């Protein structure tokens, strides 16, 4: 794959490279992130540069978001064209770009209808609201309950952080939103028991919200048999099956959607992150039978605006035109093979390698002090950006345009980081 990227020029912006001050930043910006001590200012392809001119190979991609990397010509053209044409109008009017993007999503998925918003959390919020209405109006449940999985991640809003069955994200935010129940991931017996136990009086399970592959939960792929049994249970009971495809969807898994790895179709699924290639946009896609929202019941001021939809459509079209899926499959196999070689070479350090396409995790041994964050910090010093997925899993989510040579370079840097980390430990 050969792509011409925008030529990198010295910045002439008001925020000049030599004017950036981390202390001033920390004084003005809330401390909602534990930030690494680099400030990124520009990028091209799968590489980024910080304000001091250092170059990094980007295997974070905005956490599985920069589908086409940085400064991809298709996105540059789409951004320029759309901002000169129309960037925002209300959803009180028809928006042609929104319609075209919705048609692309429907044509390239199992869904029939699309609701647009701004993020993955908002897309999951929409799915939660739709499931609750469905529970009340179709299943006749007075108190509908949604099942989610331990170690899941569905967002940071109050409802989605409640759906996220990880106590570390919920601490100090009680009272949480009622109507959620947690079960172990890939455990069908636990699902069956929960449905039976919760079906009492005015209560009942209306939906199961689950990731085809758990990203933040340690890059854990779903079990095919488990998901097929979930689909059967939902077909027999009328319970909605909802997939959170925010991180694994939009070609990242080597297929357009994660559910394609599992041999089942959800009733509803959500998308964000890679959908806009870095431009904020989210979507909830549903089958026709559960499209029961009426005007005024759910909305988003910015959701589906011409700018976000126009750029997202260019990302979708580029995935098709440049055969990005084939690259994801090939580079994913190369990456996993290389990580497995590292695991075999350092079995006292690495316990597992797993993933689909270009979302992969390298898990460290539980009985050593070394953490994923330790390896990530040393990798940064050596010019490679990585991100943890929990305490012991290093996540690899590069742009989907990553090249064979760049994967080889990253693998070498990972091995060096592991050697250096264990030496320090």
Provide a descriptive summary of the structure in words.
With 425 residues, the protein is an alpha/beta fold. It has two domains: 17-65 and 324-424, Aspartate Aminotransferase, domain 1 (Alpha-Beta Complex), CATH 3.90.1150.10; 76-321, Aspartate Aminotransferase, domain 2 (3-Layer(aba) Sandwich). The protein has helices at 22-28, 61-64, 73-85, 96-107, 120-137, 158-163, 167-170, 188-198, 224-237, 306-321, 324-345, 372-381, 404-424, and strands at residues 40-44, 47-50, 55-58, 113-117, 143-149, 180-183, 203-210, 213-214, 220-221, 240-244, 268-271, 282-286, 350-356, 359-364, 384-385, 387-388, 393-396. The strands form four sheets. It has a seven-stranded mixed beta sheet, with helices on both faces. A hairpin with a 2-residue loop joins strand 13 (350-356) and strand 14 (359-364). Helix 4 packs parallel to helix 10. The longest helix has 22 residues, at 324-345. The chain is globular and about 60 Å long. The protein starts with 21 loop residues before the first helix and ends with a helix.
């Amino acid at each position: 794959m050969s792509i011409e990227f925008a030529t990198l020029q010295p910045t002439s912006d008001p925020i000049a490279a030599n004017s950036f001050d981390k202390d001033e930043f920390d004084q003005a910006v809330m401390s909602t992130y534990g930030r690494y001590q680099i400030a990124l200012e520009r990028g091209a392809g799968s590489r980024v540069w910080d304000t001091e001119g250092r170059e990094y190979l980007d295997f974070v991609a905005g956490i599985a978001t920069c589908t086409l990397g940085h400064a991809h010509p298709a996105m540059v053209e789409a951004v320029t064209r759309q901002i000169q044409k129309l960037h925002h109008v209300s959803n009180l009017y028809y928006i042609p770009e929104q319609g075209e993007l919705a048609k692309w999503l429907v044509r390239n998925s199992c869904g029939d209808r699309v609701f647009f918003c701004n993020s993955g959390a908002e897309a999951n919020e929409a799915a939660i609201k739709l499931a609750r209405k469905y529970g009340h109006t179709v299943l006749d449940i007075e108190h509908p309950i949604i099942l989610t999985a331990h170690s899941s991640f569905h967002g940071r809003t109050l409802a989605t952080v409640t759906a996220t069955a990880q106590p570390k994200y919920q601490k100090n935010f009680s009272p949480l939103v009622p109507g959620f129940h947690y079960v172990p991931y890939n455990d069908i017996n636990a699902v069956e028991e929960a449905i039976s136990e919760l079906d009492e009086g005015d209560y009942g399970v209306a939906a199961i919200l689950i990731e085809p592959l758990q990203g933040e939960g340690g890059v854990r792929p779903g079990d095919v048999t488990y998901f097929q049994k979930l689909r059967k249970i939902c077909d027999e009971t009328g319970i909605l099956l909802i997939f959170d495809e925010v991180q694994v969807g939009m070609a990242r898994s080597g297929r357009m959607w994660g559910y394609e790895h599992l041999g089942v179709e959800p009733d509803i699924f959500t998308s964000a992150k890679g959908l806009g290639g870095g431009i904020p946009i989210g979507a909830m896609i549903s089958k026709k039978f559960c499209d029961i929202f009426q005007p005024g019941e759910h909305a988003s001021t910015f959701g589906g605006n011409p700018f976000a939809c126009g750029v997202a459509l260019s990302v979708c079209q580029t995935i098709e035109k440049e055969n990005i899926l084939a690259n994801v499959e090939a580079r994913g196999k190369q990456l996993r093979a290389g990580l497995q070689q590292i695991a075999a070479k350092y079995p006292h350090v690495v316990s597992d390698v797993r993933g689909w396409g270009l979302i992969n995790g390298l898990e460290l041994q539980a009985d050593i002090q070394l953490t994923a964050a330790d390896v990530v910090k040393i990798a940064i010093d050596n010019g490679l950006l990585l991100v943890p997925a929990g305490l012991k899993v290093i996540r690899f989510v590069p742009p989907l345009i990553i090249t064979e040579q760049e994967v080889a370079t990253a693998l070498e840097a990972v091995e060096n980081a592991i050697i250096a980390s264990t030496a320090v430990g």
